[in-house]
Design brief:
833 residues, alpha+beta, Multidrug efflux transporter AcrB transmembrane fold, five-stranded antiparallel sheet, 10 strands, 6% strand, disordered C terminus
Length: 833
């Protein structure tokens, strides 16, 4: 082992002897990374909000194909005047609709101007086909139209609010047929149990084509959304207008992330630089730290650009975390450099740098390795953005370590040795206080730690999976206002579909046949598939959903029956009258109000609902469980004949995967980290001492989330890996220094005091720097960014307390004479040198 370290030291010295050459190579690599960084992108698709490979996702795509479900945006329109139904207002809506239809990427715009009017004037069911009007018709009675539309079972709270003051334009977004085809190909190839070499090659090609096409599609989608926003912003000042819809939520999430990276990223660097200057009192340490961190981030971004790997809301956090890790490594090196300079003032500058880098190589390498293990645990998740975050962080940590040991060291060699502030030799008061607590009040510290574990257990049981998209944005933001407005006036935001399965329609004649109600050919023979029993079951489910306060607008073919009742002077339609109404409807009207909700050829009825995200106490999981329970107990249908789908189901499914992922992540990271500690320290006792405080720290943060009501979501799922990754870093550095001290003084408490005065300073400086820098994220309008900054800061503080109070207390309790003798013996063949 000693031979290995000696060979490694000689190899490393070759680079340090040529600092200019090393920096030139790194500069060229950085220029290459900057070139590929042009291809670095953000993924703003709805696919990042669901669990890829989920059977519910495949079913949703299948149903979307069968019912031709499109992606929609809603643009609300509320004039200052009392009503929408005024000619001037309708003309403005018409011009707005025309402007939106001309936007590249929009295929259709449907507004109240296009809504068929069945009572203007009232006509019988059999006369509907030739007498339908719309608000575009010249002879339309506006007052009669207002009464009809604001009470319409179909259009009320869909296109018009109950009070008639707000309308919505439904904007259908253009699909990408090539992307749809590639998505199906990729899913089919991924589902193969034992793919051949040829199929694996085809999968790789399909993945590449899919990623390229998706980026093009997202760029076109962003351009479309920007144009729609500009049209909305150009409306008259007397109009209140909001955009809403799932595509907009996904896009706005990424826009907030981009904004936060630009604004708060700069603020974090500024605050970090200020803290480094306050701590070290010299600008060279500030510039070296910031430059190394920036280079690490650039190389990671360049790598992602070269791989055409987009970042999502989750993985965008890699930028902040790489900054933390690089600055942490740098601070440890700076502190050690200054220690050695105080202890050995007469050695040369180059030798001082070399001894610093070699002395800290093993602990820095092992901290990088254990942090990688922590983040690699995320790869066990079933959520693709979380998995991507895991491997991106692993790659970033490797680059961060290489940059620190090559760039920082080479640059340090080229600057003067300098004179440091003499106050540096005195450890911070807080670290000395922590050392005193650990050595003098061990029993009290460990009793408090045990009590905190019990409290943490109860807090963890309170961690919730209940997420709402609307809670991702501050109440004053535009997207929050838009979602709230849709919830309040226009029937909800998040789509939920319930699909009823029946035997498909079969034409008994083999052709269209004759029309029972007329002497001509039957243009819609499928109407005979709509039997009384189907409507009874649909009506039960319809009524149940409408009675749920969490559910807003509900639409199905039953809505046509309700429309028929209004046309039929309040009398419900019998079976024959319903068949007649279905046949009498014009084809374009039937395509609008029947085809999206019934597919006789596939034997499917679709009930479409939207969920009120602003409903107090909304629990997506509880709502879906209640619907499932009602279907299984009240409807006379087998469970396999009824299935829930839509974004509501996919989002809830993602939350379930998150919960399972969190369990597997914690188990993996704890087991792997413990194994790493045993390999590094070659002592079961020290491994246990190093791991336990950090498990307690992670449990405390999760308990904090439970007590204050921060839910487990697609971003906070990563916090366990962050906590343990950061905490284990501190533990390794501390135990490394403790081993050195205890071998020298052969007494545990003295070794702890000495360790607090040395490595404790580095841990303290790192924590203060990161906490101050990341506190600025609390001002973000994107709540996940706020949570990330808050929880990361708490994780750093928790790791500091765990490793400077609890860990040394455990050393006092468990590390006796036998432990000291073992460390002295292992000095001859050290793992940590």
């Amino acid at each position: 082992m000693n031979t290995f370290w000696q060979a490694l030291s000689r190899f490393y010295r070759l680079f340090l002897n040529r600092p200019a050459f090393t920096l030139t190579v790194l500069l060229l690599v950085g220029l290459g990374a900057a070139f590929f960084a042009r291809d670095f992108s953000f993924d703003a698709s709805e696919d990042t909000l669901v669990a890829q490979g989920d059977p519910d996702l495949e079913y949703y795509r299948e149903i979307s194909d069968k019912f031709a479900i499109k992606e929609y945006l809603f643009l609300t329109y509320t004039p200052d005047s009392a009503t929408i139904f005024h000619k001037d207002i309708l003309d403005k809506i018409d011009r707005l609709s025309t402007a939106l239809e001309e936007v590249n990427g929009v295929t259709d715009v449907f507004s109240i101007l296009d809504a068929p009017l069945f009572q203007n004037p009232p006509v019988s069911l059999m006369e509907v086909a030739g007498n339908l009007k719309t608000l575009r018709s010249s002879a339309t009675d506006l007052r009669r139209a207002e009464r009809e539309l604001t009470t319409s079972p179909l259009f009320r709270e869909l296109l018009i609010s109950k009070d008639g003051h707000t309308t919505a334009l439904r904007i259908e977004l253009q699909e990408n047929p090539r992307l749809t085809k590639l998505t199906k190909q990729r899913s089919a190839l991924r589902s193969l149990d034992d793919p051949t070499d040829e199929e694996q090659v085809k999968l790789a090609q399909t993945e590449q084509q899919y990623n390229t096409e998706r980026q093009r599609s997202l760029q076109r989608r962003d351009a479309t959304l920007d144009t729609i926003r500009s049209i909305r912003d150009g409306l008259d000042d007397d109009v209140t207008a909001y955009l809403g819809g799932v595509p907009l939520i996904a896009s706005d999430m990424i826009e907030y992330v981009k904004h936060d990276i630009a604004v708060f990223g700069l603020a974090v660097f500024v605050l970090t630089a200020a803290m480094l200057f306050i701590i070290f009192r010299q600008w060279r340490w500030v510039l070296l730290s910031i430059a190394g961190s920036a280079l690490s981030i650039l190389l990671t971004i360049g790598l992602l650009g070269a791989l055409k790997q987009p970042t999502t809301v989750v993985s965008s956090n890699f930028i902040s975390l790489i900054a933390i890790i690089t600055i942490s490594l740098t601070i440890h090196l700076i502190v050690r450099f200054r220690e050695l300079k105080v202890d050995h003032p007469h050695i040369s500058h180059s030798e001082l740098v070399f001894r610093t880098m070699v002395d800290k190589f093993a602990p820095c390498a092992y901290t990088a390795l254990t942090t990688m293990v922590a983040f690699a645990s995320l790869i066990t998740s079933e959520i693709v953005p979380v998995m991507d975050f895991g491997w991106i962080m692993c790659a970033g940590i490797i680059l961060s370590f290489v940059v620190t040991y090559m760039f920082f060291a080479s640059l340090l060699l080229l600057v003067p040795k300098g004179n440091d502030d003499i106050t540096f030799s005195k450890a911070p008061l807080l670290t000395r206080f922590f050392g005193m607590l650990a050595t003098r009040h061990t029993a009290i510290i460990l009793s408090i730690a045990a009590a905190s574990c019990i409290i943490s257990f109860f807090g963890i049981t309170r961690v919730s999976l209940d997420n709402r998209f609307i809670d991702y944005f501050r109440s004053g933001t535009e997207v929050h206002k838009g979602l709230s407005y849709l919830d309040k006036f226009l029937g909800g935001t998040i789509p939920l579909d319930i699909i009823l399965h029946f035997p498909p329609y079969v034409d008994p004649t083999g052709d269209t046949g004759s029309d029972f109600f007329t002497d001509g050919q039957d243009s819609y023979p499928e109407r005979y598939w709509f039997t009384r029993n189907k409507f009874i079951q649909l009506e039960q489910l319809h009524q149940f959903l409408e009675n749920k306060p969490e559910v807003g607008k509900v639409i199905s073919v039953l809505t046509l029956k309700k429309l028929g009742k209004k046309i039929n002077e309040g009398e419900p339609l019998d079976s024959l009258e319903l068949m007649g109404a279905l046949g009498a409807l014009p084809k374009d009207v039937r395509q609008e109000i029947i085809a999206p909700y019934a597919s006789p050829e596939n034997g499917l009825l679709r009930l479409s609902a939207r969920v009120h995200e602003t409903e107090v106490g909304l629990s997506h999981r509880q709502l879906l469980n209640e619907i499932d329970a009602y279907i299984s107990t009240e409807l006379d249908m087998d469970e396999e004949r009824v299935r829930l789908t839509g974004m509501e189901v996919l989002f809830n499914g993602m939350l379930k995967h998150l919960f399972n992922s969190q369990k597997s992540t914690l188990i993996f990271v704890i087991a792997a980290t413990f194994l790493m500690f045993i390999i590094l320290l070659r002592s079961f006792t020290l491994a246990l001492i190093g791991l336990l405080p950090n498990i307690m720290s992670a449990a405390a943060i999760l308990a904090f989330m439970g007590f204050v009501g921060i839910p487990l979501d697609i971003m906070t799922i990563t916090i366990a890996a962050i906590i343990i990754g950061v905490g284990v870093d501190d533990a390794i550095h501390y135990l490394h220094r403790f081993q050195q001290e205890v071998i020298e003084v052969k007494e545990v408490k003295t070794a702890i005091v000495n360790s607090h005065s040395s490595i404790g300073s580095a841990l303290y400086y790192t924590t203060v720097t990161v906490v101050i820098g990341f506190s600025v994220m609390g001002f973000s309008n994107f709540i996940p960014t706020v949570y990330f900054g808050l929880l990361t800061s708490l994780a750093m503080v928790g790791a500091l307390f765990a490793n400077l109070i609890v860990l040394p207390s455990l050393l006092v309790l468990l590390c006796g004479e036998r432990c000291i003798v073992g460390m002295v013996k292992r000095k001859k063949t050290p793992i940590i040198v």
